[in-house]
Design a protein that fits this description.
The chain has 2 domains: 151 residues, Response regulator (Rossmann fold); 30 residues, no CATH class. It has 9 helices and 7 strands; from the N terminus they run H-E-H-E-H-E-H-H-E-H-E-H-E-H-H-E.
Length: 185
Amino acid sequence: MLLTDVVPKDLEMFKDALPQATRIGILWNPTTPSHPPALKAVEAAGAALSVSLRMMPVSTVEDFDGAFATMTRERLDGFLVVASPLASSQRARLAELALEQRLPGVFATKENVEAGGLMSYGPDTGDLTRRAALYIVKILNGTKPADLPVEQATKFELVVNLKTARALGLKISESFLQRADEVIE
């Protein structure tokens, strides 16, 4: 998946869900090579949406507490987590901090929302896994990997956790919820 395409769309979805949000923290990992280009793309999206962004580098689990404290102190309206192995492995901790600090967040994967995050928009990981399996079969049947085309994700999903929205005191519009592929009650 190309983060330069997905991360701006995450920001757009967040703004659609919470139109009053104007100051948003971007949690990103400086050790993830795909993040610097994604930051440039989200900065352009932020300017187009008239949203002020606060870049919050987090490269270890220990960085999360400080990032959330800063976002709360600076009275940000919410946050966006750029997809990374760190964010995936710490989904429960991120959801816990968001609830503690009363900050709505948008994530890249459904699993983050199942763990208690507010919402996610991103590629359907089940679909990506099935498609990867098809490539493996082709390779095992003799196709050279160099002969296989590079594919982009084509199936995306929007997931909203209404339980989290209620805990944060947020009202998500019915029209936005109707766009969701899944709503967790």
